[in-house]
Amino acid sequence: MTKYGSFPGARPRRLRTTPAMRRMVAEHRLHPADLILPAFVREGAAEPVPISAMPGVVQHTRDTLRKAAVEAVDAGVAGIMLFGVPEDAKKDAAGTAGTDPDGILQVAIRDVKAEVGDDLVIMSDLCLDEYTDHGHCGVLDAEGRVDNDATLERYAEMAQVQADAGVHVVGPSGMMDGQVGVIRDALDQTGHEDVSVLAYTAKYSSAFYGPFREAVGSSLQGDRKTYQQDPANLRESMRELALDLEEGADMVMVKPALPYLDVLAKVADAVDVPVAAYQISGEYAMIEAAAEKGWIDRDKAILEALTGIKRAGADMILTYWATEVARGL
Ligand code: PBG
Question: Ligand 1: distance of its center to the CA of 209 in Å?
């Protein structure tokens, strides 16, 4: 055989020759049990309310939430993360509806539990922003700043009412210092030692939460920069991680996902607890919007984004596409 110049000795392309070959050597693959469905339920809604910046996502009624939970179970989805949307008139400075045993989130937890029992891991957002009239994740002091320790007391009460309603996992998302420890104590002292804490360990102050604010009907005054992390920081997430683990976090989360894959990879490398990533509202909106314009192949882009998040180290992914993707896998 005539040899022309020097040929490569190694040919990685051999392992890419056929779909079967590529499937065999795939290093990561998505499974329905990797996925967690975030879902919104709106108090008093007679019909589901579409969220304009998140086409395909709605604020559920109590009834349609139950149906969505059943569909998630049927598709093999691992869990559901519930967000309550109270009536506007019930919002106040302290976020009282968040600790009302008959508040919308507590009602939703009981509904889903009654519908699917333990077939789905039922999780709840533990944060005040859905319930406060100023839209912040905590209560404010006299100067209008978010008061860390006063907020912790509210979080402890929230943990108890959510656990009383039957939730399996609480997800504190407010980025207050000490929140995991206070919540763990509150759960233990009220007989809920089996309820887990999914700590939002690295939660960045992100422009990509935009559509979520519509989803929960929040009109935030100001921004969250004094409590959520600066996108410029990576090392700081390792400090947050150490604190959350010390305070008793059972699982940790990085959020958003796509612009923070380096954070996710570093966190996943460092821990021996399960790691979650939240593909948030803006990540959803970007792909849906580009697809609607015909600029991107929607289904391929969704799978690529989710696979990338898994490759970076996520054991679990919260995604608004959970049920759809799980069905297709
Ligand atoms: C706070 C919370 C937010 C999200 C989840 N929990 C919003 C925020 O921090 O401003 C965002 C989720 C998303 O954008 O999909 N309760």
Answer: 6
Residues with Cβ within 8 Å of 63's Cβ and at least 6 positions away in sequence, in order, are none
Measured in degrees and rounded to the nearest 5, phi and psi for residue 32 equal -50, -35
Q: Single out the residue of 306, 297, 301 nearest to residue 326, CA to CA.
A: 306
Q: What backbone torsions phi and psi does residue 92 show, to the nearest 5 degrees?
A: -145, 180
Q: Which among 91, 105, 129 is the best mutation to test ligand 1's pocket, defined by most ligand atoms within 8 Å of the CB?
A: 129
Which of 212, 214, 319 has the most ligand 1 atoms within 8 A of CB, as the residue to mutate?
212
ipTM of the complex: 0.95
Per-10-residue mean pLDDT of the chain, 329 residues long, equals 75 97 98 98 97 97 98 98 97 97 98 98 97 96 96 98 98 98 98 98 96 86 94 98 98 98 98 98 98 98 98 98 97
Domain range annotation of the chain? 29-328
Ligand 1 contact, 125 CB (< 6 A): yes
* Residue 281 Cβ contacting ligand 1 at under 6 Å: yes
pTM: 0.96
CATH architecture of the domain covering 29-328: Alpha-Beta Barrel (3.20)
